[in-house]
Specification:
Strand order of the largest sheet: 1-2-3
Number of helices: 8
Shape: globular
Radius of gyration: 16 Å
Distance between the termini: 25 Å
Structural class: alpha+beta
Strand content: 5-15%
């Protein structure tokens, strides 16, 4: 699912993103909670998910970490905002936390798009980083053109955030 794909991407670009185990945990939690708002409103999943996370004490997480997760979940499906806009809305977020939200959002968007059909079409995903190019090779007997199409608009944001190229391929079966 989304969580496995997100963590595979995180692990494969560790050399580039400079994030640690704690940030990996935040990504994992964000991936698990990214759809929680749909149980309240299908029309505004991002905002509802954001509010649920912000209103819920999560054992072992600081308020800052909860804000980071809530924002990554919110911007998973809504336009990412400038640091100034986010800072005004969220008191006490510094630039490094803003950058972390951008990184987690970029990974979450990709992972979510890969899993979007939720039909588990993707049998295996091979994620490899070579010369600042991240290769996502999807192993699937089924047609994954929907997923690859959905990925195109997530790709630009990801490339911008991490400064690497993203190449997606399907390892076909006969």
């Amino acid at each position: 699912g989304t969580t496995d794909v997100a963590l595979a991407i995180f692990d494969s670009i560790r050399k580039i993103h400079g994030m640690e185990a704690r940030q990996r945990l935040l990504l994992q939690i964000a991936a698990q909670l990214h759809d929680c708002g749909k149980y309240i409103s299908m029309g505004d999943v991002a905002e509802c998910s954001y509010r649920i996370i912000m209103a819920t004490e999560i054992i072992g997480l600081s308020t800052e970490e909860r804000k980071i997760i809530a924002n990554a979940v919110r911007y998973n499906t809504t336009d990412f905002v400038s640091y100034e806009l986010l800072k005004d809305e969220e008191t006490g977020l510094d630039r490094s936390q803003y950058l972390l939200i951008a990184k987690l959002t970029a990974i979450l968007r990709l992972a979510n798009a890969m899993d979007r059909s939720h039909y588990q079409k993707v049998k295996a995903l091979n994620v490899t980083l070579k010369d600042r190019i991240l290769y996502l090779v999807v192993d699937s007997a089924k047609d994954v053109s929907l997923e690859l199409g959905l990925l195109k608009d997530k790709k630009e944001f990801f490339e911008e955030v991490f400064g690497i190229r993203l190449v997606m391929r399907r390892k076909g079966r006969r």
